[in-house]
Amino acid sequence: xxxxxxxxxxxxxxxxxxxxxxxxETICEALSLDGFExxxxxxxxxxxxxxxxxxxxxxxxxxxxxLMLPGLGGxxxxxxLRRANNTTPILVVSARDSETDxxxxxxxxxxxxxxxxxxxxxxxxxxxxxLRRSQRQPDxxxxxxxxxxxxxxxxxxxxRVSRDGRDLKLxxxxxxxxxxxxxxxxxxxxxxxxxxxxWGLDFIGDTKTVDVHMRWLREKVEDDPSNPRHIRTVxxxxxxxx
Length: 242
What we know:
The protein has helices at 21-33, 44-53, 74-83, 99-107, 120-133, 172-183, 191-199, 208-221; strands at residues 13-17, 37-41, 62-66, 90-94, 112-115, 146-149, 152-155, 160-163, 166-167, 188-189, 231-234, 238-241. It is of the alpha/beta class. The longest helix is centred in the middle third of the chain and has 14 residues, at 120-133.
């Protein structure tokens, strides 16, 4: 690994969870040189305690997470964070390079997946891309205060969605997908178009990410996710809402 040169300072707070001392120190140094505020820990239990303990002192803005950790593994840590409705972006870094491993990482809640060995410039670029995408970027123009479709209500100014009067726990990506759909009912969106509008032009990954998030969203907004009424698949083209 070769360290990258410093770039403009960012105030984002990053947590690096990696059991290999040498790799952890190298990643922390590279991210620190790029202007991030970085801390590191060697295992999942320590990371979980740090993430829970920073609620008052300032939340972590992004987690760089290895999968092969002693005690609480990376996948289990990711699951626990998402079950606790923690929406902090997670970048998985792992030597597991099969398609199955990458899809599993995304399915349990990771936002991106980087295979070891990797270049530090790419690591920094992916961290910056995830941080940019985690900041909500509404469509231009004056948005309506509430978007409605049958039992679904999306409160634009509150970034809140309810179904049958009960609030849904959506991740930022799920919320943005649903907002885009409800602003443009019956329009067919290809996976590439959804990646561009929701993840951004700087997204580094493949279209399977869209399918994974769509399945999660259906589980929350559909009565029967296997036979959806709201979010429909248009074979050969993409997805349509309504």
